[in-house]
Design brief:
Belongs to the dus family. Dus3 subfamily. Keywords: Flavoprotein, FMN, Metal-binding, mRNA processing, NAD, NADP, Oxidoreductase, tRNA processing, Zinc, Zinc-finger. By secondary structure, this protein is α/β, with parallel strands linked by helices. The protein is built from 30 helices and eleven strands. The strands form two sheets. Strands 2, 3, 4, 6, 7, 8, 9, 10 and 11 form a nine-stranded parallel β-sheet that branches. It has a two-stranded antiparallel sheet with strand order 1-5. Helix 22 (459-469) links the parallel strand 8 (444-449) and strand 9. The longest helix is centred in the last third of the chain and has 19 residues, at 555-573. Bound molecules: flavin mononucleotide (FMN) and zinc ion (2 copies). The site of flavin mononucleotide (FMN) has 24 residues, from helix 5 and helix 25.
Amino acid sequence: MAAAAAAGVAPVRARYLTSKDRFHAYLKAQGASGNEKASQEDEEEDSVSNDQTEPPAKRVRLDDPVKEGESQEDAEEAGREEKEPVERKRARGQNKSRPCMKPNHYEKSRLCPSVTQGCAEKCYFGSRCRFLHDIDEYMAVKPADLGQNCVLFETFGKCIYGVTCRFAQAHLGDGYQNVINMDLAKQWEGKSLVRNNLSKDLQHQLRKKKFSFEKADEYLRRLAKPHGNGGKGNKASGNPTEGQEVPNCTAPEEDPGDAPEHPVLPEEGKDPKPAALESSCLMDALEGSPIKTMGPVTDEDIIKLRPCEKKKLEIQGKLYLAPLTTCGNLPFRRICKRFGADVTCGEMAVCTNLLQGQSSEWALLKRHHTEDIFGVQLEGAFPDTMTKCAELLNKTIEVDFVDINVGCPIDLIYKKGGGCALMTRSNKFEQIVRGMNLVLDVPLTVKIRTGVQEKINVAHKIIPKIREWGASMVTLHGRSREQRYTKVADWDYIAECAKIASPMPLFGNGDILSYEDANRAVQMGVSGIMIARGALIKPWIFTEIKEQRHWDISSSERFDILKDFTNYGLEHWGSDTQGVEKTRKFLLEWLSFLCRYIPVGLLEHLPQKINERPPYYMGRDYVETLMASQNVDDWIKISELLLGPVPTSFTFLPKHKANSYR
Ligand SMILES: Cc1cc2nc3c(=O)[nH]c(=O)nc-3n(C[C@H](O)[C@H](O)[C@H](O)COP(=O)(O)O)c2cc1C
Ligand SMILES: [Zn+2]
Ligand SMILES: [Zn+2]
């Protein structure tokens, strides 16, 4: 697995190779000349060496591997951009100049939601409302429909976007009346297809700080007691505002490598246990608490609190689709489920944002009914916010596990002590794991890296502690924070850690793009594998692994996958302008990965490796060539084939800038 070091060029058969200019000229001609032309050109192109065809932007990447790594993982980073205003201030990389792309900015005149919902007279804002209330007026300026069929109407018999739907002609009757197919609509009545929605009531409670966190509070009280925790680091929060902001945004407090034996850890088999452990495994902490005020908590629930009796996470040997900020949205996960992903996880959610009831953060917890083994991933730096958040989710959403992101490398989170900085703050890390584990009925899992610094692996030291603290599973991404994506994942080290973790399951993660990669990974003794970029580049990788084959998937099959994604997107984000443009944005983000796929039939030898750059090549047909383009304008073209023309003044700069060169 840990073979090839530096990234080479993928071995595309010579007859498919072409030059940058010819590649783009062909696409510009809209593929009018057809496939024959492409293969004729191939003959001439045989002399074109990889060197000549190497995209200039990628050449730079080779010279400067650190930059490449940064840009790759800016994906994770930039993914947070829109949600957290603070992050927008970051002035790193070209994404800082990313234009504001709020979808509603494409719509000058929007119809008031009160009208769409058929109760215009009840518009809450009255005369101050800035939206239109007259349907005729709205229809006069509404942009043309994007298609004749509305996927929502066709699927559910009803399109809740009514006149604002960009496919509204499919369901508008006389006087713009929204037609409903009663028979079909009835079939869906009462069925909840997406779970884990944030109710207005809960949002209100959170905003007014009315939600009660009995279990977390009890745990945090115990943590604050002077003898409770080895007499050190007892404050659950980094500051009085409960960890929302760390005043001193400096480096993490402890040193990773040579940290002395942890003060909190009990020596094997010896008493006394740390208070946190007592409160989780022994009943006294809970029996002492005012159970009557705990709402609908039964004895059974209390007993469940003991991590020793927690439900086991049955995911041995399963294929786990990694949490993926921005790209791992619900429509994408539905695609991966169809192709055989067993376990799915929501995009990383920031615990403090969830505690504040932020809708955009709660959206990351949504679960499609096809996601049968589903978890959510949390990020945070302090025991109080993380434990409270775990209790909040335990009471309000349905998940099979909760994962802590202790692998996140991005500066903003790292500097606050979250993400992989937690690997160097084992005191806080322990308090977080124990606290969350105590309040959760479902298993707690932890995703880590090899360490922070490139040559200093620390995972093997931390894993036994994580097991001790009560986590049910660890996922190890075989790279350090400093490495980002510059080197291959260290699977020998992952194997070592899997042994150390036993009997706790350990999932291995890094660089899997083929069933051979997957087989090698499994042979390293891990309990299962997690796949991230491999799924973005080719979501059918799960099928390939399960069926142990290379799938030479045709361009039309691939195009159909994109069609399904856009339909899922319209269902999820909406079929009005806002929803369409959101769908387009996430499609474009995904396309920046998809273009790295090289069709099986074009390769000189199999399989494609994740660290190899695709050269310029001609596909076997126009669409195959189009989908190989790394040019953002071609991705936009693909989006237009699926979602109609982009609005005027449309701009898109992918979060993964490494892939957006022309
Ligand atoms: C676009 C993108 C978004 C990611 N978002 C997350 C995330 O939200 N949480 C997380 O733990 N890891 C995230 N990662 C890291 C992956 O889960 C995974 O650990 C890493 O990409 C290595 O696996 P791979 O070699 O299969 O890509 C992200 C990676 C990418 C490429
Ligand atoms: Zn209004
Ligand atoms: Zn519709």
